Amino acid sequence: MKYHLPLVLYDPECPLCVRFKQGLEYLDKSLNFVSVREDEVYTVFPELSRQDCISKVHLITPDKEILTGPEVVDYLVKTLPGVSKLSWLLDNEQGQKVKNYFYEKVEELRELTQKKQEECDQCPRRR
């Protein structure tokens, strides 16, 4: 399979990740998405680690640079047409702190959601 860049790797078993993907698809039709659970992506991009991709968001830019976590947020803020107008908010130290804090809180919520799913008898089991 040929992957079109930019490519966002997301976890389809994580409700927060799915919502993030849906929001990004709405904002920008040029982004492409692939499940972190798809084996072929690790063959095409051997520098990726499945466990790392499951634990935090990854994006591969058109230049084949791999961005992770808050770097993905920076990239999206600078490149998404509707959002790029607000990129000046992150151009200072305080803006970076706010972005990092927000990202950390979203990560905590994602981890809590995954833990609850693992403990739930009715939820599908992670592979």
Automatic annotation (TrEMBL):
<dbReference type="GO" id="GO:0015035">
    <property type="term" value="F:protein-disulfide reductase activity"/>
</dbReference>
<dbReference type="Pfam" id="PF04134">
    <property type="entry name" value="DCC1-like"/>
</dbReference>
<dbReference type="InterPro" id="IPR007263">
    <property type="entry name" value="DCC1-like"/>
</dbReference>
<protein>
    <submittedName>
        <fullName>DCC1-like thiol-disulfide oxidoreductase family protein</fullName>
    </submittedName>
</protein>
